[in-house]
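Bit of a strange request maybe. I'm writing a small parser for structure token strings and I need a real example to test against, not something I typed by hand. Could someone generate the tokens for this chain?
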Amino acid sequence: MSLKISVSWQRIVKWIGVAIAIVLLAVFLIRVISFENYYYNEKEGSEREVLDEQITTIQPEEELIEIEPTEEEVYEYTVAADRPRYLTIASLGIYNSRVLPMGLTAERALDTPRNIFDVGWYVDSGKPGQGGTMIIDGHNGGPHVHGVFKDLPDLGVGDVIIVERGDGIKYTYDVYENNEILLSDADRYMSVAAKSPVPGKESITLITCSGEWSQQRGTYLSRQFVRAVIR
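Reply from user aminoacidic:
Good idea to test on real output. This should exercise your parser:
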């Protein structure tokens, strides 16, 4: 009889221990979730931290390269004769930024170059000198340094954008308008961005992230659209 009672108590003590462990785990998970929500709510709407100094490593979480290409790498970059090769916006300190051909991501969004100092040309948009509308995007920054289009919101009407083709011919575009569009409206605005603001004139549209950084969504809350027409 005493043996049975002893075994029963051992089982009861065992289950009490299991129950206590489950309760402690639940409390721990609740505290973690509560802290995470508090942290994200505190960071929502704040600017993304960008350091002044460059680093020389690839950030694996975003797969971005934050090392500016050397003069030799820029010089040796070549594309087909009729494709955009370099982008220059002297008023923003951008000179011969490499223009890389880009497609769409798996989510059907415009892809961007891995190097934050390069810009991307959407291959299904227009080509320089052929009368259509080129769509070019670029990063405003990486986790640690500013990107090629960090100051894109500062472009004003009449500022000059120069695109050099693979054959060396340069085309000059004058800024027509510069708009910050909320992220929620950006997809709809793409139909506008893909057309010239002046019917019948070749144009170029530059796109980058802008506005406030959302910690929860992992992106900026606006997109900057600069539209310019050929001279």
